[in-house]
Amino acid sequence: MLAILLLACAPDNTLHHIEDVNEGDDTTIQGRICNPYTETWLEGGTVYTHLFDSDNNLYDTVQSLTDDTGLFVLTGLPTNRDYMIFVQYGAEMIDQFEVHLPEAGGVELDTPACGGGGGGVLVVSGDYDEFDKVLPAVGIPAYDVVNGQTGDELVGFLSDLENLKEYEKIFLDGGHIEEDVFYDTDGNGDSATIAQVRANLLTYVQQGGVLYATDWSYDVIEVIWPKKIEFLGDDLVADEAQRGEDGGVTAHVSDQDMGTAVGADVIVVYDLIEWPVVESVDADTTIHMLGDAKWRDGFDVYTIPASPMLVSFAEGDGKVVFSTFRYTTQAKRDDGLLYVDYIINDL
User: Would you say 220 and 201 are in contact if contact means Cβ atoms under 8 Å apart?
Assistant: First the structure.
């Protein structure tokens, strides 16, 4: 009797039996995941589902990483079951949905609409800003790239307004080709093509697009919106404003909302031998960050107090954002990444 009582009162520490299940390489669920924020295919996202036995005990988790086309494949799943699929990127859960896996074969989900509706991000590549490092660090893992160092490809893209209208945001990486694309200084360019490129970028912004230009891309802003920002030197001479001295500059964040998010004063690092200096902006241009800009003319060094370093202005339904600094250099530092994140996602 004592043995029976002890057995009845003992805790249940036995392992639950997991019944045999029908698993195999062909029992898969596959599909593609679109980033809901950028409307581009999500690369590096984790897609997973949990496996439960008949007593609802969790015994395994099957997961897959999405590739550069957003594709995932969950393999070796028991058939004739419903699965809750979870999609996670970093620490954020961005989607979940239920899928039924039938008795035989796998399931290939319908491809979702992704991009083409103004939700995409485009980078015009150049020599300096490494957006492949910056954008994922601020929550934009997927984006398209146009080679800005190949004039024909860049002109071909910018000459068709419909190409631009596919994107919500376009980033101009400093160091892309400008001659015979945005201006003609040697007399060899096609004036009609240059005029079309300028007109398309202007219309793109007017119709709601956001254009980001950094550092040496300032010439694009100067030729399309000459009155919005007064750059150092002769406005009709390419690269004339690129006289800033390298080194660190203490920048004051004059934008109240931005200051609350990142702090009243930040350090901006210029690690190229020269950068474009801004003298002033017009009344319709907002200054977000400013600092004392040292610039060189031969052996002489001068200072422009409270020189605008980060500005933006509206054009129609869209906006142009310009920074005298490159994002890459700042994003390598935690405090710099904080304000780069704000510029890209919240400004």
Answer: yes
Instruction: Report whether pLDDT(150) > 90.
Output: no
Query: Which tokens hold the place of 254?
Result: 């004059």
330-70-67 Cα angle (round to 5): 75
For residue range 206-247, what is the model confidence (pLDDT) as tens digits? 999 999 999 999 999 999 999 999 999 998 898 999 999 999
CATH number of 120-345: 3.40.50.880
Task: Give the C-alpha distances (Å, rounded to integers) separating 102 from 20, 99, 272.
Answer: 17, 10, 60
Q: How far apart are CA 195 and CA 148, in angstroms?
A: 18
Please give the structure tokens belonging to residue 82: 């419903």
Distance CA 341, CA 347 (A): 9
Torsion of CA 259, 260, 266, 269, to 10 degrees: -80
pLDDT value of residue 219: 95
Report the range of poorest mean pLDDT among 48-52, 115-119, 160-164, 327-331: 115-119
The angle that helices 151-158 and 191-206 make with each other, rounded to 10 degrees, is 50
pLDDT at 8 over 50: no
DSSP letter at 216 equals G
255-294 burial, b for 16+ CB within 10 Å, e for fewer?
beebbeebeeebebebebebbbbbeebeeebbbbbbbebb
In this structure, the number of other CB atoms found within 10 A of the CB of residue 70 comes to 21
Amino acid at 344: I
| Other CB atoms within 10 Å distance of the CB of residue 241 | 26
Whether the per-residue pLDDT at 267 is higher than 50: the answer is yes
Secondary structure (3-state) at 164 = helix
> What is the distance between the alpha carbons of residues 288 and 301, in angstroms, rounded to a whole number?
25
Identical fold between 22-108 and 120-345? no
Summary mean pLDDT of the chain: 87
- Alpha-carbon distances, residue 192 vs 179, 183, 199 (angstroms): 14, 11, 10
Domain range list for the chain: 22-108, 120-345
**For domain 22-108, which CATH number applies: 1.20.140.10, 2.60.120.260, 2.60.40.10, 3.30.870.10?**
2.60.40.10
